[in-house]
Amino acid sequence: MPKTEPRTTVTDANYVGRISALKGLVVRVDIEAKQPEEGELLAVDGCPGVFLQVNFFEGSSAVCVNINNDIDLRCGLKVSATGKKVSVPVGPDTLGRVFNALGQPLDNGPEITSNRKVITEASGIKSYRKAHSAELLETGLKVIDFMTPFVKGRKIGIVGGAGVGKTVLTMEMIHNVTRDNKKNLSIYCGVGERIREGNELYETLKETDVLKNTVMFFGQMDATPAIRSMVGPAAATAAEHFRDEEGRDILFFVDNIYRHVQALTEISTNFGLIPSEGGYSPTVYSELRRLQDRLSSTEKGSITSVQAVYIPADDLSDPAVQSIAQQLDSVLVLSRSIAEQGIRPAVDLLQTTSSLLTPQIVGQRHYDLVAKVQAIMQKYDSLKNIIAIIGENELSPADRQDYQNAKKLISFFSQNFAVSEHLTGKPGEYFTREQTLSGVEEILGSDPSKTDKQTKDQPEAKPGDSNQTDAQTKEE
Ligand SMILES: Nc1ncnc2c1ncn2[C@@H]1O[C@H](COP(=O)(O)OP(=O)(O)OP(=O)(O)O)[C@@H](O)[C@H]1O
Ligand SMILES: [Mg+2]
Question: Whose CA is nearest to atom 8 of ligand 1?
Answer without folding.
Answer: 165
